[in-house]
C-alpha cells in the first residue's frame, strides 16, 4: 500500500506508478487534476494528457514505473483530509483540525472553522454554497462564491481577460482575498489595483516601489511607522524631498539631522534645532546648534538640561570666558 498505479481506461496500460501511501483519491471533473490524500498530507497533481497520448502513439516501450512526467505535482500540503470535492480547478476540503478550506493554484484559504466533525456533501453553484453533514445528519451550508472560484480558476489558466470580466461580480469585501491570491501568483500590480485594505495596499506599493501611492495611503492612515518605512525607502531611492516630508510626519529627528547635514542645509538644521528642542530631543538639538557654530546656544541648552558638567567642559574647550560662570553654577549644583 505504499504506492498507487494509474492506468488508461481503454487498454489498461500503465500510465504511472507514484510512491505514496494513499488514503483517498479525488478527481476533478475535467480529468486533468487529482488530489491524493494520505494519512498525514495531500498532494494535488496535474495529469499531462497530451504527453501520455504522445508516448503511447509513438509505440515506445513503457517501463515498470510508467510514463515519465505523466503527472506533475502542483501542490503539497501537510494537512490530513477528511473529505474533499472539486469545483472546477478549486479543491474544497475539510481537515482533521475541523477547518473548511479550499485550494486554488497552491494557495490554501480557510473559509470557516467548524465546531464539530463534518463531511462534505457537495457544492451548489446556483446558490454559491457548499453543504456538509454531521454524524447526526444535520446539513449545514456555507457560502463560497462561484464568481470567486471562477475568477481564480481563470487566472490559473492564464485567461486574464475573462477573469477581469468576472471581477465586477465579486463583492468588494472579497477583493482583499482576490488581491492576496494575485500576490501569491506574483501579480503584485494587479493585486494593488484590486486591494481595498489601506495597510495591505501600502505594503504592496512599497514592494513595487510605487512611492507616490504609498504616500497617499500614509496621508490617509497617518501612521508614524508607515511614514518612517516610506522615508527609509525614499532615502535609499534618492527621492530626498519625499524622504524629508516622511521624516517630518514620522518625527524622525535623527533621520532629518542626517539628511540636512549631508546636504549642507544650514536653514534646515536651524529649524530642526528648534523642533528638537520643542520635542525634548536635546541631543539632536545640541548637535544641530554645534554644527551651526552656535556655541553659546549649545552652552545654554546644556545648562537648561541640567547637564552642568558637560557645560563646564564645553566652556573650557570653546568658550573660556564662560568658564567661571559655569563653574559657579556647578558648585551651586553640588
UniProtKB/TrEMBL annotation:
GO cellular component: COPI-coated vesicle membrane; Golgi membrane; membrane coat
InterPro entries: Beta-prop_COPA/B_2nd (IPR006692), TPR_COPA_B (IPR056176)
Alphabetic keyword roster: Cytoplasm, Cytoplasmic vesicle, ER-Golgi transport, Golgi apparatus, Membrane, Protein transport, Repeat, Transport, WD repeat
Single GO term (MF): structural molecule activity
Gene3D superfamilies in the cross-refs: 1.25.40.470
CDD domains for the chain: Coatomer_WDAD_beta-like (cd22947)
Every COPA/B second beta-propeller domain range: 2-134
Chief location of this protein within or outside the cell: membrane
Subcellular location: Cytoplasmic vesicle, COPI-coated vesicle membrane; Golgi apparatus membrane
Membrane topology, as annotated: Peripheral membrane protein
Annotated ranges, domain COPA/B TPR: 151-331
Similarity comment text for this entry: Belongs to the WD repeat COPB2 family.
Protein name: Coatomer subunit beta'-3
Amino acid at each position: 500500500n505504499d504506492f498507487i498505479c494509474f492506468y488508461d481506461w481503454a487498454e489498461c496500460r500503465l500510465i504511472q506508478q507514484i510512491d505514496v501511501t494513499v488514503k483517498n483519491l479525488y478527481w476533478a471533473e475535467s480529468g486533468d487534476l487529482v488530489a491524493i490524500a494520505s494519512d498525514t498530507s495531500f498532494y494535488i497533481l496535474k495529469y499531462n494528457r497530451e504527453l501520455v497520448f504522445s508516448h503511447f502513439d509513438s509505440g515506445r516501450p513503457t517501463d515498470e514505473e510508467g510514463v515519465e512526467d505523466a503527472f506533475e505535482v502542483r501542490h503539497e500540503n501537510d494537512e490530513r483530509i477528511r473529505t474533499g470535492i472539486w469545483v472546477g480547478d478549486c479543491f474544497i476540503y475539510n481537515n482533521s483540525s475541523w477547518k473548511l478550506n479550499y485550494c486554488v493554484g497552491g494557495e490554501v484559504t480557510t473559509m470557516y472553522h467548524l465546531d464539530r466533525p463534518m463531511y462534505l456533501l457537495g457544492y451548489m453553484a446556483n446558490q454559491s454554497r457548499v453543504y456538509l453533514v454531521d454524524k447526526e445528519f444535520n446539513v449545514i451550508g456555507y457560502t463560497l462564491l462561484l464568481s470567486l472560484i471562477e475568477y481564480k480558476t481563470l487566472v490559473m489558466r492564464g485567461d486574464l481577460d475573462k477573469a477581469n470580466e468576472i471581477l465586477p461580480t465579486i463583492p468588494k469585501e472579497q477583493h482583499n482575498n482576490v488581491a492576496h491570491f494575485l500576490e501569491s501568483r506574483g501579480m503584485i500590480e494587479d493585486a494593488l489595483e484590486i486591494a481595498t485594505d489601506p495597510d495591505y495596499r501600502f505594503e504592496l506599493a512599497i514592494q513595487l516601489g510605487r512611492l507616490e501611492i504609498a504616500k497617499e495611503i500614509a496621508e490617509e492612515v497617518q501612521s508614524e511607522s508607515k511614514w518612517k518605512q516610506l522615508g527609509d525607502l525614499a532615502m535609499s531611492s534618492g527621492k530626498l524631498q519625499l524622504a524629508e516630508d516622511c521624516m517630518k510626519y514620522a518625527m524622525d529627528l535623527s533621520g532629518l539631522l542626517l539628511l540636512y547635514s549631508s546636504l549642507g542645509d544650514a536653514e534646515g538644521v536651524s529649524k530642526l534645532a528648534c523642533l528638537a528642542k520643542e520635542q525634548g530631543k536635546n541631543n539632536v538639538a545640541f548637535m544641530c546648534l554645534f554644527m551651526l557654530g552656535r556655541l553659546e546656544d549649545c552652552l545654554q541648552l546644556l545648562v537648561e538640561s541640567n547637564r552642568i558638567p558637560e557645560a563646564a567642559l564645553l566652556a573650557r574647550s570653546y568658550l573660556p570666558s564662560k568658564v567661571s560662570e559655569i563653574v559657579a553654577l556647578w558648585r551651586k549644583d553640588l
